[in-house]
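User: Quick one: structure for sequence A, then sequence B.

Assistant: Sequence A:
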Amino acid sequence: MHILYHLVIAVYLLALIITAWSLYREREPRGMRRTLTVTFFLLLAWAGASLYSPSLLALLALLLFLPPALVGGQWLLARRPLQRSRPLIEERAHGSCVRLDERDAMFSRAALVPGTPQYESYYSLRPEKKDIDAELRALPGLYAPGSRCYEPLNAEIPVAIFSLLEELRPLASPGVEGPRVRVPPAEMSRRLKGMARYLGAVSAGVAPLYREYLYSHIGRRMAEYGEPVRTDHRFALVYAVEMDYSMVKGAPRVQIGAESSKQYLEAAKIGLSLAHYLRVLGWDARAHIDGNYLVVAPPLAAEAGLGEVSRMGILVTEDYGPRVRLGVVTTDMPLEPDGPVDLGIEDFCRVCMKCADNCPSGAIPRDEMRLDRGILKWTIDQERCYRFWRENGTDCAICMSSCPYSKPNTPVHRPVRLLVRRSSLARRLALAADDWLYGRRPFRDLKPDWMKAGGPEK
């Protein structure tokens, strides 16, 4: 029996040492120091109990064994992750769903120029937004001088990349280019998801293109402004690209804008390649890339099984949290949908509150889900959110950085995510551990050397 006691404590010590090493690799000195302190005191307790009292050794082993035993028992007894049989929209709807109008999106409204037909058209429909938007437009622009985090050289990085993305938009849907090739839906879905990963995506899934996932009207492209969104496409391939952890940790400084634009460009390259491939096979396809979406990507990604829509209104994946950018390719080619899954993320969001606590603008709700356009969801205050972006001068992403799911997909974090998926107790313990190791406000400026001023000339 004494061997079993020693084994329990030794396993704990090994886990603590691995955790400390992982935190060192993540450049998290607070968590590393705390983990090593616990390791030191556990070693002392182990040595003292071994030398002086077998009963204390047994008590120590029991106290250490109890939490994982409870979590493990709940994990074994809990239901498996649910493969939902109905689409999320139908499941959460209370009455008919109203499609989101892209003209109401903050980026669409901020781009309106006084005196233009688009400006007059929008504010004739939404006169209550006119004064709010005028006040926001008077603030410094994104990546522009006068904002809080403006840096002359670094601010031009996202400006350049987003300008390139704008030039790529005409390539999103140029038309069918070859004779139609027929492939079984399951086979073609497998191939497309594999190709997306080959091109750089970290995850991919297929969803039916229900009308609720389409914008009702175009709002970002001025040449087509106000036109109804229509398509004969029936399926969507949704994929995610990973944002660099150290760049996200620097939120809300300028490096988050550089990283965001970089990953939108990566998503565009993948989407354009996939859409062109489908058109070569004789099927109509459209790549939905930054500034050129006809779909609302987060709920569509949840429908494809990539994750769940979170309290902060964006998709949270199991392996990378919200630290992803999404791309979508829609097509009329028959595909086999994956279906949404229950990963425990929505329940975690109910108790976590880190994003709401840290949001500098107070845009993230702290209460329960409410009906929005006929869908039960958390809805952020986009005017408050965008105001901070303009004042700050770059993407915010504080919510993304503070989310416990944003941690790197390492051997330490992977088993925690596995337990959290099916154990409510594990969710509470994981949140407490995240607060203790990383802090309730886990931000650090990990700007890469090449972005720092005053570096050596090469």
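Sequence B:
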Amino acid sequence: MTAPKLLLFRAGGQVFAVEAGAVLEILPTTTPTRIPGAPPAVRGLINVRGTLVTVVDAARAIGVGDAVAATGGSLILVEHRSRPIALAVDEVLDLVTESDTILDRRASLPGVRPDLVRAVGASGGQTFVHIATDVLLEPLLP
């Protein structure tokens, strides 16, 4: 059995991780079409090969710093409730195996909503917060 993998990314000047098994693909940032009345963390919609995908600004949704720039960066497509959702991030950093990281399961971390933190980890001198994407996305999407 292989160890789970984590995808590390930078958003709002901090490093976070999501479970790589939930990642569908990584795309360059494209300008979304704004959705009237959507929460500030929801940038809008993009068309990915005929499928409308909601773009969520990871920094705003997590609550760390300013939103990532509208241009540049990357989109991490993750599966949420059987549909793709794009997380707009500053930069995708690395793919690491959980067994190669030092993980500290925590209930809270200063500056980050406690319900988002699955663990705090370190890999190759890089400290990161493993976030619960389902908890992050649930209040933003209908």
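The first strand starts at residue 5 and ends at 11. The mean pLDDT is 87.

User: Thanks, that's what I needed.
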